[in-house]
Amino acid sequence: MNDPMEDQVARFENDRWTAKRQSPVWRHFAAADLVAEEPVLDVGGGDGLLLRMLFRRGFRELSLADLSSVAVDHAREAGFNADVVDVTRPLPFESGQFGTVCAVDVLEHLLDPLSALREMARVGRCVVIVVPNFSYWRERFDMVRGRTPFQSRPERGHVYWFRPETLRTMVAMAGLTIEEERLGTPARLGAVGLKLARSMPDTFATAIALRARDAISSR
């Protein structure tokens, strides 16, 4: 018997990928820069934009898993190995099968992101994660004004609110050690924005990206 909630989420994702395709923004460039090992599995990778970027950088062992059959069809059309996979369940891959597992703007869509992250850590030797910062100053300002913050609007499909320390704590709970971290800032602020984000990431970082590895193997 199908899970009504799972069907609803699948319809939401199918409608989203039917309506539009991805365009590269900071989160994609940050994730691509952090990928160092293949094979690569992009979890929740949508139409395969990140994989196309990695392919142009010389990576060849590239796979994608997404709940949306529409997104998976797009990725297959682009020439990638892609499968319909529910990330809220155990991933249908062997332990350590991938050099890198990517989750770009995925965890905030999950009610239990820790379980999903542990599965990603199981099948990948390292994990690349990007999430938006829900405590960014503009999000706070919108709430003060009585407006729904951008990241919390229904059409975004976000159900778990991350801030930098929340993500770092969850990474540690998943048994991972952070190797490299990057903070997103508004492009128009340039070096000033990056300085602000580094000094007060909760307030001035628009997003956080990191690469983490199994805590035991990284020693």
Give a topology summary:
Elements: H1 4-19, H2 26-34, E1 40-43, H3 49-56, E2 62-66, H4 69-77, E3 81-84, E4 98-104, H5 113-123, E5 124-132, H6 137-144, H7 164-173, E6 176-184, H8 190-199, H9 201-204, E7 207-214
Parallel strand pairs: 1-2, 1-4, 2-3, 4-5
Antiparallel strand pairs: 5-7, 6-7
Helix pairs in contact: 2-3
Name the features.
single chain, 219 residues, 21% strand, globular
Structure in words:
39% of the residues lie in helices and 21% in strands. It has 219 residues and is of the alpha/beta class. It has a 7-stranded mixed β-sheet with strand order 3-2-1-4-5-7-6, sandwiched between helices.
Nutshell version of this structure?
The protein has helices at residues 4-19, 26-34, 49-56, 69-77, 113-123, 137-144, 164-173, 190-199, 201-204; strands at 40-43, 62-66, 81-84, 98-104, 124-132, 176-184, 207-214. It is α/β, with parallel strands linked by helices and 219 residues long.
Shape: globular
What's the gyration radius in Å? 17 Å
Helix count from the secondary structure assignment: 9
Helix content: 25-40%
In this structure, how is the largest beta sheet organized? 7 strands, mixed
Low-confidence segments, given as residue ranges, are none
**Mean pLDDT score, rounded?**
89
CATH superfamily: Vaccinia Virus protein VP39
The main sheet orders its strands as: 3-2-1-4-5-7-6
CATH class: Alpha Beta
Looking at how many chains there are and whether they match, the oligomeric state comes to single chain
